[in-house]
Amino acid sequence: MRIHIIGGAGSGKTSLAQKVSVRLGIPHFNLDEMFWDDPPSQYGKRRNEEERARLLNEAVEKSDWIIEGVYDKWVFSSFQAANIVIVLRPTLSLRIYRIIKRFIRRKLGLEPRKNEKLSYLIRLIIWSFEYEKEHIPRFLNTLRQNKIRFIECKNSKEAFRALPLE
Fold first, then answer.
1. How far is CA 152 from CA 40, 44, 78, 88, 136, in A?
2. CA 157 to the chain's CA centroid
3. 49-78 burial, b for 16+ CB within 10 Å, e for fewer?
4. With contact defined as beta carbons under 8 Å apart, do 59 and 29 qualify?
């Protein structure tokens, strides 16, 4: 089984990937960990393109996997290799609520934290609006044009039910 999960920040990608990974006993790969070369406490240092490509290829070459993240262009090979692409599309208001909640939980030390600043939170919220208006429509069009099988789901529960988990 090869599953690629995409969705905006706060859409539930990581939670869904973790649940499906446990249920199916297959590895889960987070694209943020491939894209960013940060120590656990910081943000902002990107990996070079060759290193990202190597990490992605190592994941895609496995017989079973779940890859999740918000990226599209540099991960096209994983979309092509996937049995299915899940596009998580909860409401924008729910995503923004989750983004803010995660920020607060990290600041309080209730979740693993990075050295996040309020300016990062604001940029992420602004980017979320752009993602909804520009990125996701372009991404869906690319999937359709390339005849890549995908399903759109409003939440992780809907996506979980749509997957062949037996």
1. 32, 30, 17, 6, 11
2. 16
3. eeebeebbeebbeeeebbbbbbbbeebeeb
4. yes
pTM for this predicted structure: 0.91
Token pair listed for 143: 């999937």
Domains, the chain, ordered by start: 2-162 (3.40.50.300)
Per-residue pLDDT in tens (0 to 9) along the chain, 166 residues:
999 999 999 999 999 999 999 999 999 999 988 998 876 556 668 889 999 999 999 999 999 999 999 888 899 999 999 999 999 999 999 999 999 999 999 889 898 776 778 998 999 999 999 999 999 999 999 999 999 999 999 998 899 888 877 6
Classify residue 31 as exposed, middle or buried by CB count within 10 Å of its CB (0-12, 13-18, 19+). buried
- Other CB atoms within 10 Å distance of the CB of residue 81: 16
Residue for token pair 């240092």: 45
